[in-house]
Design a protein that fits this description.
Blueprint (H helix, E strand, L loop, with lengths): L1 E5 L7 H8 L4 E5 L17 E4 L7 H9 L4 E4 L9 H4 L5 E2 L6 H16 L2 H9 L17 E5 L3 H12 L3 E5 L10 E2 L2 H7 L2 E4 L13 H6 L4 E5 L8 H9 L3 E6 L21 H8 L3 E3 L8 H21 L7 H6 L1
Parallel strand pairs: 1-2, 1-3, 3-4, 4-5, 6-7, 6-9, 7-8, 9-10, 10-11, 11-12
Helix pairs in contact: 1-11, 4-6
The structure holds 1,4-dihydronicotinamide adenine dinucleotide (NAI).
The site of 1,4-dihydronicotinamide adenine dinucleotide has 29 residues, from helix 4 and helix 6.
């Protein structure tokens, strides 16, 4: 029996992890708390920890996990900017789930866009109050408009297909453009200047942090719609707020936020929100915020659980090479 300390466990995580893990001999210690310096002790007696995007896996936590005899860090996410992978190299393997449902994220981006520009969120609230007025609900057609997609990896490509299905013209930017496609790659500046809708699908790195800043927004068309389902820090939220207040940005749809760690995934409805910037963004009539929800489909949850369980078994039981081991990739 392998024991897994499962941090930041939510009710929607358990069914899929039990379905794939129990038959293969995994026993979970589901913990509602996030992994951090104070909670690392809760992994005592476990073979592995299973962590998510807002758990802290820094050098201190990694060293303490090793001292406790934990033998594996299994991320149940694709992104790993919260893990000090280099520090883990040679000490403890780190595995992740590189892809689980790019459709989930691309479809959520389009759902946000349609909700925003057709004012579905406003209409929903109005009709529940028996307010059947159409005033202020005028939207615009996507057909014939230009969508700029930044990052043409797994998710960006699916969004390109979806946008083309709506009759949109698509411009693409990627630091490493894909070969053998018919995508119209342009420099980032051109994409910013010519797009009616801009959707971000590149990873967060030192280079991409705040790629959407005041200067970038200045280049954009008046009324541009900005979608971010990637990582919050791709956008300088203060610059975005200024762009909205200046009526330059027509709408923003954010599934991620730079300072989301303490807020997203939690029910804070009975609390005073300390983050003034997030409060201001949410208060804007043309901003829609979802709390890192883009991945959340049945298909994605099943794929995440199946791959994570396989990663754990491969490393801890069979001892075979695991294609999803980050520490192997980083030490090469
Ligand atoms: P991917 O690795 O398949 O594609 C990323 C693309 O970004 C690649 O084509 C790469 O060449 C490009 N890229 C790298 N550096 C760049 C730069 N400096 N400028 C422009 N493009 C650059 O990744 P995938 O699966 O498409 O995911 C994209 C992002 O979506 C992830 O990095 C992750 O942060 C985010 N994500 C968000 C989820 C959510 O629930 N909101 C769920 C899953 C992923």
């Amino acid at each position: 029996m392998l024991k897994i300390a499962f941090y930041d466990a939510k009710p929607y995580d358990r069914p899929s992890f039990e379905k794939y893990g129990a038959p293969r001999g995994l026993e979970y210690r589901f913990l509602e708390t996030k992994l951090n310096h104070d909670t690392v002790e809760l992994a005592h007696g476990c073979d592995a920890v299973c962590v998510f995007v807002n758990d802290t896996v820094d050098a201190f936590v990694i060293d303490r996990l090793c001292e406790l005899g934990v033998r594996l860090i299994a991320l149940r996410s694709a992104g790993f900017n919260n893990v000090d992978v280099l520090h883990a190299c040679g000490k403890i393997p780190v595995v992740r789930v590189p892809a689980y449902s790019p459709y989930a994220v691309a479809e959520h981006a389009m759902a946000l866009l349609l909700t925003s520009i057709r004012r579905i969120h406003k209409a929903y609230n109005r009709t529940r109050e028996f307010n059947f007025s159409l005033n202020g609900l005028t939207g615009f057609d996507l057909h014939g408009k230009t969508m700029g997609v930044v990052g043409t990896g797994k998710i960006g490509r699916i969004l390109i297909d979806i946008a083309r299905g709506f009759g949109m013209h698509v411009l693409a930017y990627d630091k490493f453009p894909a070969r053998g496609t018919d995508y119209e790659y342009v420099p980032l500046e051109t994409l910013l200047e010519r797009s009616d809708v801009i959707s971000l699908h590149c990873p967060l790195t030192d280079e991409t942090r705040h790629m959407i800043n005041a200067e970038a927004i200045e280049r954009m068309k008046k009324g541009v719609v900005i979608l971010n389902t990637s990582r919050g820090a791709l956008i300088d939220a203060d610059a975005l707020l200024e762009g909205i207040k200046a009526r330059k940005v027509g709408a923003a749809c954010l599934d991620v936020y730079e300072e989301e760690a303490d807020v997203f995934f939690e029910d804070r409805s009975g609390h005073i929100l300390n983050d003034d910037r997030l409060s201001r963004l949410i208060s804007m009539p043309n901003v829609i915020v979802t709390s890192h929800q883009a991945f959340l489909t049945e298909e994605a949850l099943n794929n995440i659980a199946e791959t994570t369980v396989q990663n754990i078994i491969t490393i801890l039981e069979t001892g075979e090479e695991c294609p999803n081991e980050l520490t192997k990739q980083y030490s090469n």
